[in-house]
Design brief:
heterodimer; A: 157 residues; Arc Repressor Mutant, subunit A; Glutaredoxin; 45% helix; B: 426 residues; alpha/beta; Rossmann fold; Ubiquitin-like (UB roll); de novo design (two linked rop proteins); 3 domains; binds flavin mononucleotide; binds iron/sulfur cluster; binds FE2/S2 (inorganic) cluster
Chain lengths: 157, 426
């Protein structure tokens, strides 16, 4: 698959170039754009960003691998990320993770055979007052119970 | 009770510039633009505004550290909100983005910074979008951009999203991340005020710290100081999570009694349980036993009892919870988040995780508690950034205050709580 920004993302990329005194600062935002458009940050995505910024692919890869949010491998259509940190654990996160794992038939870190769901355990999402919390792609879901998760996941197309 | 930040947070329209202005917004900026830089910084000093990001450094004094020269300066706003138990800046950004933007504009004017960046944790996509909309509105009205309100002062403000790394909340790591590097903390000195983002003198402040600034300019530093306790001006957003009846963010005067926060404001322990422990200021702060929480929630009072108000995140732990398991959750986190740059931190957090986990799983060895304590001593003060201490403090305090529970696990070679957290929906 060849990677290139959509017209809209190219416009955003060019806007970003004007916002920093240094091109390298645009690496993180560019990788976000790649992931938003293609679902993950592949080697092609890295080379594309390197080309746009005139930097080496190794330089971009060093950044992409440091940050956990950049998916270097493909993930399912829905990336279900359940917080396993302290406030969520106190209010039952580990039971919820077991529940979702059973429901989807995958362990954390795995993707369902149909490619629809990837399950992940993540660290504190900064929403501890409404624990337990999960993200599905860019959206937060809070005050979770097993029943609530069922209806959220069942409602995804 | 006088509120500084949250008065209008119940109003959905408050995040739009029209409503914000109707309710008195951007008047403080106009006033500030007519003041001298020194007068603004003086007002913030008088306010006893302490940094809300964790370390509690006085904001006015920090602002005074910028070298007196003509080099361009940068203001960086720390919206990384990564410390487990902390969730207050998210509220400001989603309910009152213009409060933050106005605070940034005033601070940047006082610091003579023409570039500013909000470094927001990557997961806060919605909040980043809200901020971007609000920033566009502020540019359109002339509160940002060139020649702000005819003052001749220019300021650009850009939202920069992080990408999932707790260590990037540490200010020098954050600066590296802003520059497009891996988020490795830098050795200090040089301090960011001298060499910071893009090699320029830089001030890093937390979201809440800057959101307090418009109120200070409008009402005066002394008035702000009088809202709180000695040396701790104003109110604080205190995020209470865990096992309380009404978790959430509460705006309360600095120095409010911690026991009252939990029992009066938050309705006490959920399901009428007894209290077992409180982690008072985010996951890195030393744990307290129930008999210790009758204390003023401010920086000096908390330090006196050997803990900290940190980032304002109060985590409430009920009876029936395994403290070893909790420490295991935290150590998993710190081991995952250590950037690996310093040997004592990289190895130490790894060992914390391994040893606490084996104790929890009934495989603890007789010397394990002492081994953990030795590791703590080894990690303190010997690293580039305070993350290793942030990991060591919970270990030390859990082992000191709940030592019997660790000993029991090791002696019986099993978890008395059955290796699980209790279910919240019993
Ligand atoms: C590991 C680590 C993580 C931190 N995370 C945050 C954070 O998420 N948000 C924040 O404002 N400060 C955080 N800090 C504190 C910052 O380094 C810095 O002190 C703060 O942003 C300064 O702003 P203030 O003076 O307004 O509090 C962290 C510090 C460390 C050592
Ligand atoms: S103390 Fe830990 S997190 Fe901080 S710089 Fe050293 S290795 Fe990295
Ligand atoms: S602990 Fe789960 S959101 Fe903070």
């Amino acid at each position: 698959m060849s990677v290139a920004f959509s017209e809209e993302n190219l416009k955003e990329f060019n806007r970003l170039l004007t916002r920093y005194p240094d091109r390298e600062a645009v690496i993180l935002p560019s990788l976000h754009l790649v992931q938003q458009q293609f679902g993950n940050v592949s080697n092609e995505g890295i080379e594309y960003v390197a080309g746009l910024l005139g930097l080496s692919a190794a330089r971009i890869e060093g950044v992409a691998t440091f940050y956990t949010m950049y998916n270097r491998k493909a993930v399912g259509k829905y990336h279900v990320q359940i917080c396993r940190n302290i406030a969520c654990s106190l209010l039952g996160a580990e039971h919820l993770i077991d529940h979702v794992s059973g429901k989807l038939g995958v362990k954390p870190g795995q993707t369902t055979a149909d490619g629809r769901f990837t399950l992940a355990k993540v660290e504190c999402l900064g929403a501890c007052g409404t624990a337990p919390v999960m993200m599905v792609n860019d959206d937060y879901y809070e005050n979770l119970t097993a029943a609530k998760i069922d209806s959220i996941l069942d409602g995804l197309k | 009770m006088e509120l500084v930040l949250t008065t209008h947070f119940g109003n959905d329209q408050y995040r739009t510039i029209g409503t914000y202005q109707e309710l008195g917004g951007y008047v403080a900026l106009k006033k500030a633009l007519g003041m001298t830089s020194d007068a603004i910084i003086d007002e913030v000093k008088k306010a006893s505004l302490r940094g809300r990001g964790g370390a509690g450094f006085p904001a006015g004094i920090k602002w005074g550290f910028l070298p007196k020269n003509d080099r361009p300066r940068v203001l960086v706003i720390n919206a990384d909100e990564g410390e487990p138990g902390t969730f207050k800046d998210r509220l400001i950004m989603s309910r009152g983005p213009h409060l933050l933007i106005e605070g940034i504009a005033i601070a940047a004017f006082a610091l003579n910074a023409h570039m500013s960046y909000i470094y927001i944790r990557g997961e806060f996509v919605k909040e980043a979008n809200i901020l971007n909309e609000a920033i566009d509105e502020a540019y359109a009205k002339g509160f940002l951009g060139k020649n702000i309100l005819g003052s001749g002062f220019d300021l650009d403000l850009t939202v920069h999203r992080g990408a999932g790394a707790y260590v990037c909340g540490e200010e020098t790591s954050l600066i590296n991340s802003l520059e497009g590097k891996r988020g490795w903390p830098r050795l200090k000195p040089p301090f960011p005020a001298v060499v910071g983002a893009f090699g320029l003198p830089t001030i890093v402040n937390n979201v809440e710290t800057l959101a307090d600034v418009p109120w200070i300019i409008t009402n005066g530093g002394e008035k702000f100081a009088s809202l709180g306790s000695e040396k701790n001006g104003g109110t604080r957003l205190i995020g209470v999570s865990g096992w309380v009846e009404k978790p959430g963010v509460y705006e309360l005067p600095c120095g409010t009694n911690l026991k009252d926060i939990i029992y009066k404001h938050c309705g006490g322990i959920k399901n009428g349980k007894a209290l077992k422990a409180v982690i008072p200021g985010g996951s890195s702060t030393p744990v307290l036993r129930p008999e210790e929480i009758d204390v003023a929630y401010d920086i000096e009072s908390m330090a006196k009892i050997g803990s900290a108000s940190g980032s304002g995140g109060v985590i409430v732990i009920p009876e029936g919870t395994c403290m070893v398991r909790i420490l295991g959750v935290l150590m998993n986190f710190y081991a995952h988040e250590s950037c690996g740059q310093c040997t004592p931190c990289r190895e130490g957090t790894g060992w914390f995780k391994t040893i606490v986990s084996r104790i929890e799983n009934g495989k603890g060895k007789p010397g394990d508690i002492d081994l953990l304590l030795d590791l703590c001593d080894n990690m303190m003060g010997r690293t580039v950034c305070p993350l290793s201490e942030a990991a060591g403090m919970p270990v030390k305090s859990f082992l000191t205050k709940f030592r019997d529970e660790f000993e029991q696990h090791i002696r019986d070679q099993k978890c008395p709580y059955g290796n699980k957290f209790q279910s919240a929906h019993a």
